Amino acid sequence: MSRDRSRDRSRSLSRDDLRRFSSDTSSDDPKAVMSRIFIGNLPTDRVNRDDVDEAFRKYGPIRAISMLKGFGFVQFEREESARKAVASENYSFMRGNRL
């Protein structure tokens, strides 16, 4: 079973998880840029992609999630979803960190 290094090491991604969303949030396409959000101060040592997906999917379909040390990106399918997520989650808390 493959492991995603950005996840909690005690959990691994299933094949279904890998198909659900990708980790490519680097498109330069203007439409993609407008539907992508930056998540700063993300406690990547205590959350994984499933946690981020669960917190943000209520705003709309997610195409990709990428996580690096202390921050991440969520790529939504629509710009409207990204705007709703920013309006609702800006300065919210995730596992004790203010995003």
From TrEMBL:
**UniProt cross-references to SUPFAM superfamilies, sorted A to Z:** RNA-binding domain, RBD
Where is the segment annotated Disordered? 1-30
Q: Which domain of life is it from?
A: Eukaryota
InterPro entries found in the cross-reference section: Nucleotide-bd_a/b_plait_sf, RBD_domain_sf, RRM_dom, RRM_HNRPC/RALY_subfam
Where would I find the RRM domain in this sequence? 35-99
For bias type Basic and acidic residues, the affected ranges are 1-22
Q: Which GO terms describe its molecular function?
A: RNA binding
* Keywords assigned: RNA-binding
Q: Which GO terms describe its cellular component?
A: nucleus
Q: Which PANTHER family does the record match to this protein?
A: HETEROGENEOUS NUCLEAR RIBONUCLEOPROTEIN, RRM DOMAIN-CONTAINING PROTEIN
Q: What is the name of the protein in this document?
A: RRM domain-containing protein
Which source organism does the UniProt entry give? Capitella teleta (Polychaete worm)
